[in-house]
Amino acid sequence: MTTVSVITPTYNRAETLPRAIESVLAQDHEEIEHVIVDDGSTDDTPAVVAEYDDDRIEYRRLEDNVGANAARNAGIRAASGEYVAFLDSDDEFYPGKLGACVDALESLPERYGGVFHGYDIYRGETYLGPEATAEGRVTLADLGEANVPGSFVATAFRREVFDAVGELDEAMAASQDYEFYLRVAREYDLYGLGAVLARHYRQPDSISLDLDARRAGKAQLVERHGDVLTDRRHAHHHYLLGLAHAKRDELGPARRELVRAIRLHPTNPFPYVHLVTCVTPTTFALGTAAKRRVKRLLGR
Hints:
Elements: E1 4-10, H1 17-25, E2 32-38, H2 45-50, E3 57-61, H3 68-78, E4 83-86, E5 92-93, H4 97-107, E6 112-123, E7 126-131, E8 135-138, H5 140-145, E9 155-158, H6 159-165, H7 176-185, E10 189-201, H8 211-225, H9 231-247, H10 251-264, H11 269-277, H12 281-298
Parallel strand pairs: 1-2, 1-4, 2-3, 6-10
Antiparallel strand pairs: 4-9, 5-10, 6-7, 6-9, 8-10
Helix pairs in contact: 7-8, 8-9, 9-10, 10-11, 11-12
């Protein structure tokens, strides 16, 4: 049976790390290597990992906090599996995730460098809806429109992909996953499984709310992949900036970014919803709740 290496970068997530580890060890695919890269944690992370007496776990500790992508790269270099999957220390796999990914990769032609699947999004115990549920072939042109796979938790790649396109870009200020997918898609196709096979937790300290990082990441994306990014993708950037401003109660800048999003992609209904409700923090929250309900109904 083919070995799949699961890479988990972690930094001060001792409370949630057991959930991630146990979701890997519970997989029905037998040949698993779980590489946990401790990015210089100062909490009880080493003791938490030590509680698991399982030879499928390989724990590596970095002396300094170097960032999630650098930790993922350390895990990739340590991995021995034919396939590589990613799992952040506050997320979890659903049963059957690894088996489904490996089965798909072994049945698909080699031009498919990776697969992805849907995942449920939670903030704490609150369910926000599903994401990345596309099915079938995904090309570079598709990725120029949108980050179709979404979070790293949704993906699995052939090991040789990293040899062909390089490791994750540690210099990216944001959109690290999306930048990697674009590089992969220049050499390979991706394939969406359609099924929802993981759970992703959004944290209060998410980089998505860091406006400077998001703007810097966008500039880096344009520099590297501006030849394939479409107006729809640029609109999504302004939409997310608008949401980030609104969540910080900066409603004037939020409205300006939402208007930019509408001008670039006028058929997307969600910026309109937020623009109409972006009057006070309370009305914005109501608009956000309404959008979540619509997304759940549409399965988007």
